[in-house]
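haha ok so turns out i had the wrong file open the whole time. this is the CORRECT one, sorry everyone. sequence first:
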Amino acid sequence: MISETNTSRSLSASESRLVLDLEWRDQRTVTLADLRALLGASESYARFLAHRLVRKGWLERLRPGLYRLIPANRGTEGIADTNPLTAGAALVEPYFFSFGTACTHHGFTEQVFAETYIACQERRPSVIVRETRYVFVSVPRDRFFGFAEMVVLGEAIQMATPERALADALDRPRYAGGVAEVSRMVSRAGGKISWDAMLNLLARWNESALVQRLGYLLDLHGVAVPPDQRAALIARMRPSSKVVFGPRTRWGTEGKLVRPWNVVANVPEQELIEKGQPARRRVSFGPPRSSGDR
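then structure:
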C-alpha cells in the first residue's frame, strides 16, 4: 500500500542527487538493489533512504523492495500517477496485460473488472497496489506471444493484441468474467479483429479445443467470417476432437453436439447471448490489418 506523503518535498543533498540521477536516467521504477548501487551504500541505508523518500512523496512503494519514482512534475504534493496499468507494469517482468483487462481495453466488453490481469511467466500471488488487485496469470514460455507496446493514458505498456486477448479469454474464462461474458466478447470482437492475425495466433497456439469453442461462438452469434478464413479455422481442428463448452462442474456434460465444431453445448444459449439479442445475429467484419504481435 502507499505510504502517506508530506506536503513538503524538500530533499537533503544526498536525496537530491539520487532523485536527479533517477530522473536523468528516466528510470521510473527502482529496487533496493538499484538504490544500493546508485548510492554505493549498505542495504540498511538504502532502506532508510527509500523510507524517507516515500514519506516525502518522491517514491511510491509498489511492493516490498520495489518503488516507483514520483517525479518533480507531479507537483509539490507528490501526487502519484493513478493509471493502474502503470503500476502493474512495474510489478513483474516480462509481462503483458491480457484477459479481462485487455478485452476491456479493446472494447470487447462493457464489464468493469475489479481486478487487473497480468500475464507473466511465473506463478505468484496477487497483490494490492493503490487499492487495485493485480492478478498474475502464469503463461507457458512457448505461448508468451501476441502482445505489443501500446500507449495508454500517456504511458507505454505491454498489452495483448485484440486477437490474443480474445484467445486468452476463451482459454481461461475465469479471468474474463466467465463463459457467458466471454461469449458476448466474441460477438463484439467479430468486427474488430484481423482474421489473418487470429489464424496465425491459433497456429502457434496449436490447441484444437480453443478453435472449437471460438468457432461455436462465432456461429452462435452469426459473426461473419470470410469463407477462406472459416475453412482455415475448421482445418485447424482435430477431426476426432469433441469438447464440452462450459465448465462441467457447473453445467454438467449433457447437451447437443454442434457441428462442424464438435462442441457439446452444455450451456443454454440464452446464457450466452446479449439480453434482448436473438441468437445468430450477423456481425460485419473489418478489413485485415497488421496485428503487431510478438
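The chain has two domains: 13-79, 85-272.
again sry for the mixup
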